[in-house]
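Reopening this one. Same input as before:
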Amino acid sequence: MKIQYSKQAVKFLSKQDKLTQNRIINAINNLPNGDVLKLQGRLGYRLRVGSFRIIFDKSGNVLYIIEIDNRGQVYK
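Same output, byte for byte:
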């Protein structure tokens, strides 16, 4: 499965410390395992990694990471 990151997701990851980066990247690589729910009211799914939320969409063999942010900010 190919994983593509949006510009916002790459920017958010680059601002985090190495431990947090590794936790998020490992969780993305282990999809579809993890705390995944389908979003209501918009397209895509969310993955929970601690207090971070990863919004992603899957089409065919490509997993597109739309947004990564803190729990309170990602849904706005």
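So the earlier flakiness isn't reproducible anymore. For the record, The longest strand covers residues 62-70.
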